[in-house]
Amino acid sequence: MTVPEPPDRPGPAYDAVVLAGGAARRLGGVDKPGLRVGGRALLDRVLAACADAGTTVVVAGRRPTARPVRWAREDPPGAGPVAALDAGLRHTTAASVVALSADLPFLEAATVTRLLAGLRGGAEGVLLSDADGRDQPLVAAYRTSALRRELAVLAERHGGLAGLPLRRLTATLDLVRVPDPVASFDCDTWDDLAAARARIREHGHVLDEWISAVKDELGIDLDVDTGMLLDLARDAAHGVARPAAPLTTFLVGYAAARAEGGPEAVAEAARKAAALALRWAEEDAAGGPSVPAPDAG
Is 250 exposed, middle or buried (0-12, 13-18, 19+ CB in 10 A)? Predict the structure, then answer.
């Protein structure tokens, strides 16, 4: 009797493998991972979603990225997604791995966390399904041992992994499917890219997208209360003058940086500035006897 292999225990760390070397035929062969949505390359958006991975492996030719990664290539280059995943997996050590394509404009860290949490139920993989109900095996978390097992079986059966579709790899895995038409949305065509660019400019998304883009551009990893800063800008604009809004928020950030603090320092500086703006506005509203301005002469 064959004793089943005990499931891996997912730890706090995981590794990520990002496949970024496709031919992008439906886009005319352009460099798809380098296309920008919201001012950020698609690859960098995906890398931001898995920023807390122990090791991040990008399977593609080397290129500038917003954060450090490890590079790998399938052999031969262009051998397909199964061969690429195998090449990336060789550089991982964690019990769990997230497998991602490099064209997911709306992937977020919360989605990656949700996929990994699904492995705790004993499944060998947790993947998203798109708006049409199709499996998306490159927006998924897997037990590393299960992937390695199936890759070895396929390599022996077919004499290699080149040209094999991903469904061959996942066909025998114990999978959990999570419907998510937004996070699973990928940019395969120019229409997809246009739709992604339009979505991030919608009223409910544009501010978060802009802040994320600015933080990436400036190399800032800091979560602050956006609502608090907007309230401060409003108070400064209404209580002092409209140009005071951007200048005040800049000074708050500068003060927090001088204090070498995190979100707490930003909150404290914003509280002081907001109180000052309210005091300023109260003086203006209170009025009082007319007092001639001092003679500059």
Answer: exposed
Non-local CB neighbours of 141 within 8 Å, separated by 6+ positions: 14, 96, 97, 98, 99, 112, 115, 116, 118, 119, 125, 126, 127
Distances, alpha carbon 186 to alpha carbons 21, 119, 201, 204, in Å: 15, 23, 17, 20
Alpha carbon 108 to chain centroid, angstroms: 4
Q: What residues pair up with 129 in beta bridges, in sequence order?
A: 135, 179
**Residue 147 corresponds to which tokens in the numbers above?**
């992937």
For residue range 64-80, list pLDDT tens digits in order: 998 899 999 998 888 99
Contact 110, 128 (CB under 8 A): no
Q: What are the C-alpha distances in Å from 247 to residues 202, 216, 259, 280? A: 26, 22, 18, 16
**117-148 per-position pLDDT tens digit:** 999 888 999 999 998 999 999 999 999 999 99
